[in-house]
Amino acid sequence: MSGLSEPTSELAAAVLAGDEPIFHPNTGKPIEEVFTLHPAAAAGLDVPRYCQICGRRMVAQVRPDGWHTKCSRHGELDSEWLYVEHLPES
Ligand SMILES: [Zn+2]
Predict the structure, then answer these.
(1) What percent of the chain has pLDDT over 90?
(2) 90/75: higher pLDDT
């Protein structure tokens, strides 16, 4: 382990469980209002800058190997947690 805390935040739990976002993580807009995204965001490559639960703007830190964001209400989310969970199954 690289010293990261475990994904125990409410935000991480929602993302890892595959919960439908309420707010878009790249735009902060209610998900049903989001129709067009730039290609990187649509592909999920962009750093999520808004909490998908409350739409609050998060503190985002970009590392060479990923990113880390934090909602002041719903906790932290780290790209490392997502990559572990989203390995291709093919
Ligand atoms: Zn939040």
Answers:
(1) 46
(2) 75
Residue 81 CA to ligand 1 center (angstroms) comes to 17
Tell me the CA end-to-end span of the chain in Å, nearest whole number.
26
CA distances from 58 to 24, 87, 89 (A): 12, 25, 31
Ligand 1 centre distance from Cα of residue 90 (Å): 33
Cα 72 to averaged position of ligand 1 atoms, centre (Å): 7
What is the Å distance from ligand 1's center to 74 Cα?
4
Query: Residues 4-43: pLDDT tens digits?
Result: 667 889 999 999 899 989 998 988 988 877 656 655 555 5
